[in-house]
Amino acid sequence: MTWGLQNRLSRIIRPTDGHTVMLAADHGYFLGPTHKLEIPRKTMEPLLPYADAVMVTRGVVRTSIDPGANVPIVLRVSGGASVLNEDLSNEKITTSMKEAVRLNASAVALSIFVGAAHEHDSLVNLGKLVDEGEDAGLPVLAVTAVGKELEKRDARYLGLACRIASEFGAHFVKTYYCDDFSKVVESCPVPLVVAGGPKLDTELDALELAYDAIQDGAKGVDMGRNIWQSTNPVGMIRGIRAVVHERATPKEALEVVKGAKPKK
Ligand code: R5P
Q: Closest Cα to residue 194, out of 214, 179, 208?
């Protein structure tokens, strides 16, 4: 890894404890105005002080994040299919490395679709993006997207997808939590962060997911809906921080959530 690439990665995964709380807010790139993310600036602004990095598209960076907000950007650079299409796996690189550098992104992110119709294209996208990232000094986050096939969310499938992502040169990988998650971690030689997935029933459920993932070896979370679809988003991101950075138990973190007053 070059110095610049390492430096950018350390803006996201904190060198002090090797962990990260990334705020995912890129959902609009295929879902449009997702519930509670209809006005990205309004959703994200109160959360940015608690995020180690934010994962967004260039459209959201330009329109909804103050350039003075000193939050590292993980720039979503793949896309090309919407939720209206049966096949979500038909993605290409939609934002250039030059644009990522211009936006002062700390990393770029793309989805790979292992086992899906466009598996091949998405993996070739990853290989090319890693080459460009190495040239520019930008780390690449591979997202093991499972699209509409969420039934594939087990250690065997996710272990396969994460390992392939690392073999293609991804500098870190985002995946989903599952039973036997430690097996996914063991067989992936680069850092893993977990998505939250669809909103869980309770705040405690989401805190437990983050806790279990960290216990099993994840380096952090890249969480969206379970934070900003909560009735207390600031409380939730603070609770997640307590789990990820302070090793709080889910019950201790729930007290942190409750301690932060929800905005009226
Ligand atoms: C999905 O591909 C998007 O990249 C989201 O960033 C991802 O799903 C994480 O958000 P959530 O925690 O809402 O699942």
A: 214
